[in-house]
Amino acid sequence: MSDIFSGLLYLLVSNPTIENFSWIPGKTMASSPTFLCFTILSYLLSIFILTKITSPPSIPKSILKPISALHNTSLLLLSFIMALGCLLSAISRAPHLQWIICFPPGTKPVGPLFFWAYVFYLSKILEFVDTLLIILSGSSFRRLTFLHLYHHATVLVMCYIWLQTSQTMFPAVLITNASVHVLMYAYYLSCALGARPRWKKLVTNCQIMQFYSSFLVVSVMLYFHFTSDYGCSGVWGWAFNVVFYTSLLLLFLDFHRKNYGASSNKTIYFN
Question: What is the pLDDT of residues 131-186, one digit of tens each?
């Protein structure tokens, strides 16, 4: 068992590529504000154009299902690896538990934890394919909501701020979010393979719990920030996060009321 743990620790934390990672704005791939803005605008513009076409492009289900299955499998595995990698990095690098929630001021975006934050950031671009698959399935008017587009576009900004400001507390958010995504993409994969598991409501419940728990953890972080001698690194980046979370909560509750509350057969996917 110890050999397995040591092997995972090397693969996901201690190997040179991860150990020596450094986020350098303008030098690290995809680290410039220009790239961030261009990526988000390209995503939104592409979706606008595709949804405004009289007959949106679609492909046969016999072709779309394998593509969807491959995409969901990739994100399922990637989410699991990110959650495990970030967890092992936090365990092996944290001098104490408070450090995971409150980085000391002056923390540099280097090392294993920030490597996994970087991978998480890039994974959010890969998740844009979710939207394309919805459009290609021909169900864009039924499933492509403002909440879906707003979340996919804005979460990329949140992840960029994590790295740019060495934002405190992101490991807890990353581990929780990636873990929920394992469950969510497992459900998507099952659907793509032709099976609809009975635990779809569990996916929604986990997503809701994740959302509310973020406010609790933020409260703990703010307590550490204002009661410690030096505060926490990148704490003001959380001003964006709080506004983002609050707006998502309002949109999510409204969407939940209109869709999920009306029928037990409907499920909201907040990814």
Answer: 998 888 876 555 677 888 998 999 999 999 999 999 998 999 999 999 999 999 99
Over its C-alpha atoms, the chain yields an Rg (Å, rounded) of: 19
Amino acid letter, residue 173: V
If you average pLDDT over residues 187-197, what whole number do you get?
A: 88
Locate tokens 């000391």: which residue?
104
At residue 12, what is the residue type?
Answer: L
What is the b/e burial string over 168-197, where b = at least 16 CB atoms within 10 angstroms of the residue's CB?
bbbbbbbbbbbbbbbbbbbbbbbbbeeeee
Let me know the angle formed at the C-alpha of 39 by 161 and 72, rounded to the nearest 5 degrees.
90
Q: Tell me the residue type at 122.
A: L
Instruction: Give me the pLDDT at residue 239, please.
Output: 83
Of 266 and 161, the one with more pLDDT: 161
The rounded distance, in Å, linking the Cα atoms of 232 and 159 is: 18
Alpha carbon distance 16, 31 (integer Å):
21
Cα gap 16→36, rounded to integer Å: 27
Residues 238 and 169: their CA atoms lie apart, in Å, by 9
The CA-based angle 96-100-102, given to 5 degrees, is: 100
pLDDT single digits (tens) 175-188: 999 999 999 999 99
Question: Which residues touch 38 (CB under 8 Å, ≥6 apart)?
Answer: none
Confidence grade of residue 263 (pLDDT, cut at 50, 70, 90): very low
